[in-house]
Design brief:
Two copies of one chain form a homodimer.
Chain A: H1 8-15, H2 19-26, H3 35-47, H4 54-61, E1 66-71, H5 77-92, E2 96-101, H6 105-117, E3 122-126, E4 146-150, E5 160-164, H7 166-179, E6 185-189, H8 195-211, E7 220-222, H9 229-241, E8 248-250, H10 254-266, E9 276-281, E10 294-297, H11 300-315, E11 322-325, E12 328-330
Parallel strand pairs in A: 1-2, 1-3, 3-4, 4-5, 5-11, 6-7, 6-8, 8-9, 9-10
Antiparallel strand pairs in A: 10-12
Helix pairs in contact in A: 1-2, 1-3, 5-11, 7-8, 9-10
The structure holds a DNA duplex (16 and 16 nucleotides).
Chain lengths: ~350, ~350
DNA sequence: CTGAAAGCGCTAACAG
DNA sequence: CTGTTAGCGCTTTCAG
């Protein structure tokens, strides 16, 4: 098998130096070393294509150049763009990622245990903003494991945290629709179990207030993106059955928005003519819909990059921080023209 | 920091046994051990919440219970359903995944090197079916690293391989459309750089042949899903400008299919009334489109699970195999009714 | 500036 | 059935 693995000792012998010298060149402690020796050792290393074992190195240094990534919903588009961004950023910083999918707190606790035995240098948690139990995280700092959370409540001050401003995002969407002439703007909210839902509803109210529109309970309905499509259709229909019906709706995410568009179109309505639709996420398919979807882009990639940087900096000794990112309204056709029915 | 890490020695001392005894209970070599001793050791382990270091263990056993995953296009919908499935399957089998994104052969070679230094027990490559250079993989078996490739040419007989039958998938879609009454079926193909494109075009021809329809060059156009949306619209328009125009089109993937639907609708055509549309992938948004998209589902998850099992079995000593999975046509509204214009 | 030697935490012979 | 011991491959004092 791997019996022919090259070791540092072989390099030392072939270079006719000691292992510590080889170790020194490996780790850049090469300042006051005879150029000739350096040259020779490097030569042997490259001809033998020698790569030091991270395992052995990890055992002695206690560092593995590996970061654990604990993801709440790995199959969600949103999370995946985060994983991609994180992987790229990690590798640029010289780290690898052990990716784990945790479905709940219990699972998460297990995953964390495994990650600890594997000696990761730090852990990044990326959550679905579900209110999760954090107790299994609180002893991480004491164990010398650095951690940063994305889109999740901070388990303690020793943790880094990156979030985005859901509230301002939705408020901005309301303003956008109002500026387009809409006066009856509905909001399809996500499940209450998510922190983001509260934030977004608050943003919706704030937006209405800011533009001087009244809040109407009727115009806020549940369209749980973790649930059935049928329920989204029903919620949309209920909204459109209202008198007066809304001329615009902000959906709990892009998937729901797609279904809102479809439901409206099936009723013979034009989007955005009769109904403007705004989504949340800016998923990959948003620009492909008919009409292309206006949506609140969540800065997931940027969050991932910031989280990784924060963690790497913390490994280097800096202290953790808290960062809040802005969302961005991506305006496409599903909201652009003025509503037809404004002057009803 | 982690100065308080519990070691096997401490467990041994507190249990008043030797380290090897502790090691034995850790590794289940507990058959002929006094029940009382076993009990005592276990007690100490759990009260001290001791977890053996995988690093140290890995150094001596040569195994790390870690599998490397090399993904070609991590941000693609297709790939991340694979990563999710792989992670779940891996953890069930007691493994963790180091996920790496390789953008090209060169990058891939680097990633493989890193993975080797990290001592992964095996590597899974999941490719975009791009014709990639495999030379950096061929020495893996010699180094004792097991590997299986998904959706990619087999680098050698020592590699496991899981693929799916693109050809049959597209042929089946043609038959489906023909059964619906369509006689003019177009195919929007992907880029030639992908192996899958060749397979799919072959499947298209085979399907036509099987149902007794002529192959027309005009009806096959490029709509590169890795390129611009505008180009997809143009390709669709060109198809619809043809006389006679096709009554059905199979798109190179679901994203392209979404744009085909939109382009047709913007020209005042009804889908599926005037034009039936079939996608490839069965991405998450396919059922949300208007109309819901008929599509060729690629068995990505299943492939992931098979690949993982193959790798784990290989680690356990079994030999590698080659598995070819079937695609599945998921029929939704974008193709269901009979074409209006059949009897033109 | 280089070499010898002591571990990192664990497993696996090999004795007892 | 349990204890001793020799490493796994590397880093890192500490002498020379």
């Amino acid at each position: 098998m791997s019996s022919d693995r090259v070791t540092i000792r072989q390099i030392a012998e072939m270079s006719e130096v000691s292992v510590s010298t080889v170790s020194n060149v490996l780790n850049g402690r090469t300042l006051r070393m005879s150029a000739e020796t350096l040259e020779r050792v490097r030569g042997v290393i490259s001809t033998l294509r020698y790569r030091p074992s991270s395992i052995a190195r990890g055992l002695v240094t206690g560092r593995t150049a590996t970061i654990g990534l604990v993801v709440a919903e790995i199959e969600t588009a949103l999370f995946f763009s985060a994983v991609g961004a994180l992987e790229t950023a990690a590798r640029d910083a010289g780290y690898n990622l052990i990716v784990c999918h945790a479905r709940g707190s219990r699972d998460e606790a297990e995953v964390v245990t495994v990650l600890r035995t594997k000696g990761v240098d730090g852990i990044i948690f990326i959550a679905n903003s579900e209110a999760v139990d954090n107790t299994h995280l609180t002893d991480l700092p004491a164990a010398g494991i650095l951690a940063v959370v994305i889109n999740r409540r901070r388990p303690g001050p020793e943790f880094g945290r990156v979030t985005w401003n859901d509230r301002a995002g939705v408020a901005g969407a309301v303003e956008h629709l109002h500026a387009l002439g809409h006066r009856r703007i509905a909001f399809l909210r996500g499940p209450r179990s998510r922190d983001s839902t509260r934030e977004r509803v608050a943003g919706y109210r704030r937006g209405l207030k800011k533009v001087g529109l009244p809040y109407q309970d009727d115009y806020v309905r549940l369209a749980d993106y973790t649930a059935e499509v049928l329920a989204w259709e029903r919620a949309t229909s209920e909204l459109l059955d209202l008198d007066p019906a809304p001329t615009a709706v902000i959906a709990s995410d892009d998937s729901v928005a797609a279904v809102v568009i479809r439901t409206a179109q099936r009723r013979g309505l034009s989007v955005p003519g009769d109904l403007a639709v705004v989504g949340i996420d800016d998923q990959m398919f948003a620009p492909l819909l008919n009409p292309p979807l206006t949506t609140i882009r969540l800065p997931v990639k940027e969050a991932a990059e910031r989280a990784l940087k924060m963690l790497v900096d913390a490994i280097a000794g800096q202290s953790m921080r808290e960062v809040r990112l802005d969302t961005e309204l991506v305006v496409r056709d599903s909201s652009s023209p003025e509503p037809r029915t404004t002057v009803s």
